């Protein structure tokens, strides 16, 4: 209006009506299951992210008007895609094969590292080191 900027709405609120020469911006709270995480001039709030178990995810922090859902990995999964501190996609940890041992266990952010057993040792794939063959 007249080359002036309208006031923005606070995080958790959207523009209900834009400012005019006679009135300021009117803001309204984001409806349930929606959010805006920073001050803006948006007229609609964003849908809250759903943490899908089928993508290896669960809720770490529920969505509020002012912040989106924060997802974390399910057990035995690691995160492959992050956005604003939330995991967006996860993959199941690699399972070591027979003849391999778990060199480094998987974490929520890294995959399992497998290594081959040396001669005359064995592992079913679930051991953290290889065992000697017995006669």
From TrEMBL:
Disulfide bonds join 30-45. InterPro entries: TNFR/NGFR_Cys_rich_reg. Residues 29-71 form the TNFR-Cys domain. The keyword Repeat does not apply. GO terms for cellular component: external side of plasma membrane. TNFR-Cys repeats lie at residues 29-71. This is Tumor necrosis factor receptor superfamily member 14. The lineage of its organism: Eukaryota, Metazoa, Chordata, Craniata, Vertebrata.
